[in-house]
Structures are given as C-alpha cells and as structure tokens.
Design goal:
Layout (H helix, E strand, L loop, with lengths): L9 H10 L4 E5 L7 E8 L2 E8 L6 H10 L2 H5 L6 E5 L4 E5 L4 E2 L9 H15 L4 E3 L2 H14 L6 H13 L5 E6 L8 E4 L2 E4 L6 E3 L6 H5 L6 H11 L6 H22 L2 H16 L2
Antiparallel strand pairs: 1-2, 2-3, 3-5, 4-5, 6-9, 7-8, 8-11, 9-10
Helix pairs in contact: 4-8, 5-6, 5-9, 9-10
C-alpha cells in the first residue's frame, strides 16, 4: 500500500489489507472538507473504491444501508457502485469502481440527455419502497430552526423572517422513499454517454422531492431544457407547491449555515441566494 492509506485508522488499514492484499492506491478522491477518505485502488487487475470515515462521521452508516437495501436496481444495470466488503463498526467499505468522469465540469453537465438518464436512475431508486412518516415534517421544521441557532452570516432581519415562517409551518404526514440526498452532477459519472451515480453518504428515507432541491438551485436555473429532460426521465414532477416551498427554505438555511461552518464561501453564497429565492416566492 502507498502512504495514502495513512489517513485510515489502524483497524481500517488492517481490514483493507486483509480484503485487498497487495492493493495499490491509484488516486485519492477525498474532498478534505469532512473526515472521510475516498481512495481508488488497484487489486489483482481490478479497480475498487475504499471509503473510510473518522469517529465523527454519521454518513457511512447511511451509505452502507443504501448499498444493502436500495442499490440493487442500479448495480443490476451497471450504473451504480457494487458493494464488495464492509465493516460498519470500523466505518470502512469497498466498492467496485464505477467507470467514467464526473458529469460536473464536463460537456455532459449541459446535455439534456444526461439529465434524462439521471431522472431515470432516480426513479429506479425512489420506486423501490414507500411509506408514510407522520413525523418527517416536524423533524425537518425543528432541524431548520436548529440550523438558525448555530453560527451563521444570515442577516438579522432575514433570520427573523425565516424563524417566523418556519414556526408557522404545518407538520402533515409525509410519504417517504429511498433518496440519494445529494442528487446533482458532482455525484453522477458519464462513460461513453451512459450516466451512473455514486456517493450515497446522505441516503435516507425522505420525500421524493428532496432529491430535486439541489438541481433546482443550481443546474436548472436558466436552463429549463435540463429540467424538462430530467422530469421526462423521472416520469413526472413530484413537487407539490407548499411542501416544495418548505423544502426549499430548509435546504437554503442548511446550505448557508453548514457552508459557513466549514469555510466554503462560494457554497455559503449559494445558500444565501437560495434563501432570497425561496422568500421571494412567497
């Protein structure tokens, strides 16, 4: 192994060496913003991804659940990561490498066909199960208010308006499905025109509309043809206006506050724009 494995804990390194003896690190895909290490490795002529989390992480358990319960439709058509090894207690998993380049930053980011395919993939994920969660909206409301209790740079007048609106929200039962949680081109790969998906660290049971929030705030702005193609692939538009508005406000607040906490100024500015857009739509 190369020194890139030094970022893993000793138990994690021991497991990886047992699972993939003699493997070599080809590339470090880690972001550096959170305590997750993502390594592309080569073992016996095959390429894998090793993902390991630190003691503060709460995303790897979500990813492992997604692999075990929800990713079979993607894996069956070769458009999602296949789980090979995992240890939930040690917080380390190994998947087969999904070939391709990130859609984000490539020509495919502006290609309607990529969004049509992404919509089809998302429909496969969402369509596996559903049930009514009577507490989801109440939890989301409380979480939004809790974000506002943390340090941030939302102006006092906007914060006051946000708090008043969020406090007034109803908490109806919500239909939840398996969701990706970060559905956008930075988590899509394209290989010879075929779009696949990766990174299930935010996967959870949520309303289907939650997987449209980041696209609506980013790629769909000023590009209606991408939104039309995506919804064609998905098979319809799941956005009910009032629930969609509540989600947009929650996503905006969470984005602005989280990005400030980790020092991602450009993402923080996006969060402030999302807040302005959401409030302007009332």
């Amino acid at each position: 192994m190369t020194s890139a494995l030094d970022a893993l804990s000793e138990p994690q390194r021991r497991l990886v060496n047992a699972w993939l003896p003699g493997a070599e690190v080809a590339r470090d895909h880690s972001w550096g913003l959170v305590g997750t290490t993502v390594l592309e490795v080569v073992h016996a002529g095959e390429r894998y991804v090793v993902k390991a989390a630190d003691e503060h992480d709460h995303h790897l358990a979500r990813e492992l659940r997604a692999h075990r319960e929800w990713l079979a439709p993607w894996v069956a058509v070769g458009r999602g990561p296949e789980l090979v090894h995992a240890d939930g207690e040690a917080k380390v998993i190994v998947t087969r490498l999904v070939p391709g380049v990130l859609v984000e930053g490539s020509a495919a980011e502006h290609d309607p066909d990529a969004y049509r395919q992404a919509g089809e993939l998302l429909a496969l994920l969402h369509g596996q199960e559903s049930h009514v969660d009577p507490e989801f909206e109440a939890r989301a409301k409380a979480k939004s208010l809790a974000w506002l209790d943390k340090p941030h740079r939302i102006t006092p007048d906007v914060e006051e308006r946000l708090r008043a609106e969020i406090a007034s929200w109803p908490s109806p039962p919500a239909l939840v499905v398996p969701t990706h949680g970060d559905w956008q081109p930075r988590n899509w790969l394209v290989d010879d025109g075929v779009v696949s998906a990766i990174d299930l660290g935010r996967a959870d049971l949520r309303p289907a509309v939650s997987d449209l929030a980041r696209l609506a705030a980013q790629q769909f702005r000023g590009a209606p043809e991408l939104e039309v193609a995506f919804l064609e692939g998905y098979g319809g538009d799941p956005r009910e206006p009032e629930a969609w508005h509540r989600l947009c406000v929650s996503e905006a607040v969470g984005t602005a506050v989280w990005a400030f906490q980790v020092g991602e100024e450009s993402f923080e500015q996006q969060g402030h724009r999302m807040i302005a857009d959401a409030l302007a739509n009332r």
